[in-house]
Design brief:
It is a single chain. The protein is 44% helix and 15% strand. The chain contains 6 helices and 8 strands. Helix 3 crosses helix 5. The two termini are 31 Å apart.
Length: 174
């Protein structure tokens, strides 16, 4: 039995992946330079990393207990109405960041990008009974908190363990 899982645009503290929006934003903020955005109007299905991982664990558990009933493709993402454009996401990060932060639009030409990406999670919600625990606004709060405290000297492992504990105590968002 095989299942595949796809997630939305995953965000959370501790991600240092190059050429990914939130890590690039956080690094720019920390270095005191403006973030350069290619497509601030592009809408994406942002979701917190622990929501994504929790969904994957739910799927693995169902697969191990009930087998082929849960084989196949699964999408994990935010509620359909809980998406933000890239520029909106960055503006919210700016409003929460404990220092000076800004963004500018890249004036160069770029390959075409989809204007709006969404995931249909209805199968996952109905059959796995899975729902995200954080709405995007909370995910941004948790993400900024993680990075701001890390840059103040907190240990990454301690921050992760604290957020895991808080996450486990939280009920689904809706």
């Amino acid at each position: 039995m095989i299942a595949t899982a796809r997630a939305g645009n995953v965000i959370g503290g501790g991600d240092w992946t190059q050429d990914q929006l939130v890590p690039d934003v956080v690094n720019a903020f920390h270095e005191g330079r403006p973030v350069v955005l290619r497509n601030p109007h592009a809408v994406r299905p942002w979701q917190f990393v622990l929501d994504c991982l929790g969904g994957y664990m739910t799927l693995v558990e169902k697969l191990s207990l009930e087998g082929t009933k849960y084989a196949g493709p699964w999408n994990f993402g935010p509620h359909q109405d809980d998406t933000l454009a890239v520029g909106e996401l960055v503006e919210r990060l700016i409003s929460k960041w404990p220092g000076k932060a800004s963004w500018v639009q890249d004036a160069g030409s770029h390959p075409h990008e989809a204007g709006s990406l969404r995931l249909d999670t209805s199968k996952t919600v109905h059959q796995l009974r899975w729902k995200p625990r954080l709405i995007v606004a909370e995910a941004l709060d948790w993400t900024v908190d993680w990075y701001a405290r890390y840059f103040e000297g907190a240990k990454a492992k301690a921050l992760c363990l604290e957020q895991i504990q808080r996450f486990e105590e939280k009920a689904p968002a809706r």
